[in-house]
Amino acid sequence: MTPLLDALIEPFRHAFMLRAMGVGAFVCAVCAALSPFVVLKRWSLVGDAVSHAVLPGIIGAYLVGLPMALGAVATGTGSVLAAGAIDRRARVKPDAALGIAFTGFTAVGLILLSKVPSDIHFMHVIFGNLLGVETEDLVQAVAVGCAVLAGLVVFGRDLVLVCFDPAQARIVGLRPDRLEMLLLLLVAMTAVAALQAVGVVLALAAMIIPGCTGLLAAKRFGRVVAVSVGAATLSAVIGTLASFWLDGATGPCIVLAQAALFGLAAALRARRGRSRPA
Amino acid sequence: MASDSPSIRVDGVTVAYRGSAPAIEGVTFALHGPTICALLGMNGSGKSTLFKAVMGFVRPQAGRVAIDGRDVAWAQRANAIAYVPQTEEVDWTFPVSVRDVVTMGRQGRMGFLRIPSATDRRIVADSLARVGMAGFAERQIGELSGGQKKRVFLARALAQEARIVLLDEPFTGVDLRTEAAITDILRSLRDAGGLILVSTHNLASVPDFCDEAILVNRRLVAAGPLATAFTPAHLDRAFGGTVRIATGSAGPAEPGAALPALAAS
Amino acid sequence: MSGGEFLDLALSPFTYGYMRNAIFGAGVVGAMCAVLSCFVTLRGWALLGDALSHAVVPGVALAYLAGLPFIAGAFAAGLLAVVGIGVVERSTTLKGDAAIGVVFSTFLAAGLLLVSLYPSNLRLTTILFGNLLGISDEDLVQVYAAGGICLGVLLLFWKDLLLLSFDPAHARTIGLRVRALNFLLLALLSLAAVSALQAVGAILVVAMLVTPGATAYLLTDSFRRMLVIAPVLGGAATMLGAYASFFLDASVGGCIVLLQTAVFLVCWLFAPKHGLLAGRRREAAA
Predict the structure, then answer these.
(1) Secondary structure element (H or E) that encloses residue B12, with its range
(2) Closest-CA residue in chain A for B56?
(3) pLDDT grade, residue C172 (50/70/90)?
(4) Each residue of C112-156: pLDDT tens digit?
(5) What is residue B200's three-state secondary structure?
(6) Which residues of A touch B109 (CB under 8 A)?
């Protein structure tokens, strides 16, 4: 019994593990708070586009000595705005326009990456580096995350209305176009925060899966957000621990924990549906 | 007409979507409350484009729209128009309750954080009671019947306390009881001075509760009191001869008179 | 620089065996993906293409670990993901794009975890960014085989697939097997995705599956011509990208995709009928 207990307690003895779990839980909670909006707006592809298109901004900002978050938000939202211009003015469907725009941005990012000497830092951006997160990155992630949460507190109700019924939003004097821009900005900022935990490649997962879990488990928006945040926080802790025990990459472990909770919610819902036919 | 009565003035309005022929062309009419006006026309006749122009969702290529004598941007800021959408356009799986939806009618009038005040909550409760849905406030909106869904969106329009209400096909797929309940509420809104514009396919019910009618077929066919606008000749022109109904008078249809509910396509 | 020196310099990449492999391999991959991209853009399947290109990753990882051809693993994982998306869509109220997002990011996470657990067999950067310059002869044979299968099947079925893309209801009424054809198209996409993975990496595969088709659609109104223009442009851009990366000493995948984007932008500007400038001329004339 004791060896097993030791193995369970072991990760909590390391300061870097506690720090990783804390940062991971916070960052994933921020992603999860935004997640229901992304899912209900049907912005999966937008989320993917933004989280990849931050790459050239991060490297570009590093090269000219600006904060990385600034460059990331600029190119992340820029890719979606470029897609919007293509969609409006060329005979291309919106999804294809997004695909063209964000891969173009990402390609620039990869070329820059291959030209920057000592790319170790940027590999962390691509895969996430929760176990070795540096203080400067941590501060940036927490600051950006807090800004996203503040944005959601202030504009959350308006964003819900815009997702649910843009016509009604407009008719009561809201500006759906501006609110969509705001949501895009929040997605880009969330992607910046998510990089620390899961990296560019899996940022979309952190922005999509918890919201889907929440939508399966609850029928009121407030509860959907609560379930989403709860599931993501739990997954961050479980995933970080699992990566310690398995000696595998942290980001994928967190995402797989989120996927497991999603599967659980789907199974519970299917069962409830069978036992209580509508 | 008293200057404080609600009004819609559409003056020579043409709307064309990019790369296609105009959806409506040179449409002119004026409405003043209190009135209930039916907006009639086939699918593709420009009814929904006309709605969008009145609500300020599309910018006309020519002509102008005035709400209460001012422009549509003012109307949006002032919450001057309430809108009841077609139920097909709503995402019924969305995680909001009946109360949440009706509260959305108040959202333009709430403070910075959009937290409903005691007054907002009372108005929402009153609106729900008025459409007979007070007992369903905590239901998720997908868990309602077709008629109940319509009532909820009507309650949202009531909660907005706008003097102008636009309804898009409110009677499709509802039972007779709900239809009667909806028309009762529309009448009471009119009697309180409101301006109600209802697009509908159901010609049979028009004489029953409407005061005026507007008929469109891309261009305006007729607009005015039922006696002059809602005539067989005008209906013929609006619906391309697909309707044959005896509407000799503008009086209410006899109960059970088998006027065909029109399914023009 | 004299003409002869310039020619020597321009041809210098071809003196290296690995560059010849890279350039011609890239051409095949580019053309194969470009043909499929015609269907992807017209059907609004960009997200699905993105999804498949990520979902094949665990299959590739497992195949390498088990010593099997990577194409077999990728194929299996791609089809499993499609089935998974279908299950999530049917058994929950989630919309299509959310179901796709959940399933493919889960697959990608599983693949990346596998790679991190067995780092010696397979490098993460190979999967995510491609490794065209280090492509083995064995892998190259698989890429050529995939390209051959893909083009052959498309030659046989393109008319049915076109009808299916344009009007699924009509396709059903005239007795086409809609489910089987959709499955066929998804299977081809998996094949193309895994080949493109070699060239540009999982992150950028979707560009190969979207951009050439969208470019061709700007240039012509005929689907038949799209099927010719897209692979010519896509294949040329891919080969040229690989060639340019030799001189720029930069990411091959990045060069290839950036060139694809540049071709799109040029066509968007100058296309005779659907280009920006043509539109402006029409407005000025009107």
Answers:
(1) strand B7-15
(2) A171
(3) confident
(4) 999 888 876 677 788 888 888 888 888 888 889 988 999 899 888
(5) coil
(6) 172
Q: In the predicted model, is pLDDT for residue B222 greater than 70?
A: yes
Residue B116's CB: how many other CB atoms inside 10 A?
18
User: C-chain residues within 8 Å CB-CB of A107?
Assistant: 204, 207, 251, 253-258, 261
Nearest to B94 among A40, A167, A218 (CB): A40
Nearest residue in chain A measured CA to CA from B166: A171
- Interface touch A100/C210, C-beta < 8 Å: yes
CB contact under 8 A, B96 and A223: no
Q: Which CATH number fits domain C26-280: 3.40.309.10, 1.10.3470.10, 3.40.1190.20, 1.20.58.480?
A: 1.10.3470.10
Mean pLDDT of chain A: 90
Q: Minimal Cα–Cα distance from A87 to chain B, Å?
A: 13
B105: Cα within 13 Å, side-chain hemisphere = 31
Q: What percent of chain B has pLDDT over 90?
A: 64
Q: In angstroms, what separates the C-alpha of C235 from chain A's closest C-alpha? A: 17
Contact B77 A173 (CB under 8 A): yes
Instruction: Name the helix (H) or strand (E) containing B66.
Output: strand B62-67
**What are the boundaries of each domain within chain A?**
17-266
What count of Cα atoms within 13 Å lies in the side-chain half-sphere of residue B118? 0
The sign of the CA dihedral C174, C177, C183, C185 is: negative
Distance of CA B214 to the CA centre of its chain: 12
Residues 6 or more apart whose Cβ sits within 8 Å of residue B16 = B22, B23, B61
User: Nearest Cβ partner of A99 from C94, C202, C210?
Assistant: C210
Strand partners, B214: B39, B223
- Least confident piece of the model among B158-162, C25-29, C129-133: C129-133
| Predicted-complex ipTM score | 0.91
At residue B258, does pLDDT exceed 70?
Answer: no
Residue B1 has pLDDT above 60, yes or no: no
ω into residue B34 within 30 of 0, thus cis? yes
Half-sphere CA count of B171, side-chain side, radius 13 A: 23
Residue A215 contacts C, CB cutoff 8 Å: yes
In the stretch 28-47 of chain A, residues with CB closer than 8 A to chain B read 36, 40
**Chain B residues with CB-CB distance to A211 below 8 A:** none
User: What is the enclosing helix (H) or strand (E) of B224?
Assistant: strand B219-225
**pLDDT value at residue A187:** 96
Yes or no, beta carbons of B97 and A163 under 8 Å apart: no
Quick check: A44 and C98 in contact, CB under 8 A? yes
CATH architecture of A17-266: Orthogonal Bundle (1.10)
pLDDT digits (tens, 9 = 90+) for A87-145: 988 889 999 999 999 999 999 999 998 888 765 577 778 888 888 888 888 888 899 99
pLDDT, position A99: 94
A198-245 pLDDT tens trace: 888 899 999 999 999 999 999 999 999 999 999 999 999 999 999 999
Q: Which of A52, A96, A255 has the CB atom closest to C41's CB atom?
A: A96
Give the Cα separation of C79 and C70 in Å (integer): 14
pLDDT at A151 exceeding the cut of 50: yes
Which of B91, B95, B107 is closest, CB to CB, to A161? B107
Q: Return the C-alpha torsion angle C6, C7, C11, C13, nearest 10.
A: -10
Query: How many cross-chain Cβ pairs, A to C, lie less than 8 Å apart?
Result: 194
Which chains pack against C, by 3+ Cβ pairs within 8 A? A
Interchain contact, A96 vs C40, CB within 8 Å: yes
Among the partner-chain residues C94, C203, C258, the one whose CB lies closest to the CB of A212 is C94
Q: Please check whether residue B45 is in contact with residue B14, taking contact to mean a CB–CB distance below 8 angstroms.
A: no
Name the residue in chain A with its Cα closest to that of C268: A90
Which of the two residues, B50 and B19, has the higher pLDDT score? B50
